[in-house]
Amino acid sequence: MMQRKVMLPLTDEIVKNFRTGDNLLITGVIYAAKDTAHKRMVEALKRGEILPVNLKGQIIYYVGPSPARPGRPIGSASPTTSGRMDSYTPCLLAKGLKGMIGKGSRSKEVKDAIKKYKAVYFGAIGGAGALLSKCIINVEIIAFKDLGSNALQALEVKEFPVIVINDIYGGDLYEEGKAKYQIKL
Question: Is-catalytic flag, 38?
Fold first, then answer.
């Protein structure tokens, strides 16, 4: 399995080359945030406030990492179910967010927004948090420190493995996988 290396941030030019099923190794800074942090960001935008991070070209990883062991920047870092962020995602994509990493299918509204804003949804392997954490070389809390492991965090990653689930062309790896194994009677 060939894995293409990708340096962040993402641009329209980079994203247009991704197709469902592509295996990528991401290097750069990604942002960790789950539903509570997403809610706060969207509420801030509705109040006309500036976000604590410029989302243009950025990726959000849906993760609430466990505490770091001594000598490590982060604990286990498995992806969480992406559907919990679906109500917030179109708003953040409109602000320039280019990618999301998680697990599970996305809603029609999110898939439509991915196409509209030329973004991409990546899957990471659930249950492999200890292995994924080895690709995270530095962590910094950016905002919402009171949320603990659910705070908005900057994660510096090196060759973080992901697979493209939803691309800008409407591709959906989950739907393609189901269709591939449908029994035709």
Answer: yes
Q: Structure pTM?
A: 0.94
Backbone Cα Rg of the chain: 16
Catalytic hit among 10, 20, 37, 38: 38
First to last CA, the chain: 33
Burial (0-12, 13-18, 19+ Cβ within 10 Å), 91: middle
The structural domain count of the chain equals 1
- 25 is in which domain, residue-wise? 4-180
Domain annotation covers residue 121: yes
- Answer yes or no: is 49 within a domain: yes
| pLDDT tens-digit map of 109-152 | 999 999 999 999 999 987 788 889 999 999 999 999 999 989 99
In a domain? residue 185 = no
Query: At 14, which amino acid appears?
Result: I
Residue 181 pLDDT more than 90? no
Q: State percent of the chain over pLDDT 70.
A: 98
* 50 in a structural domain: yes
The CA distance from 9 to 56, in Å, is 8
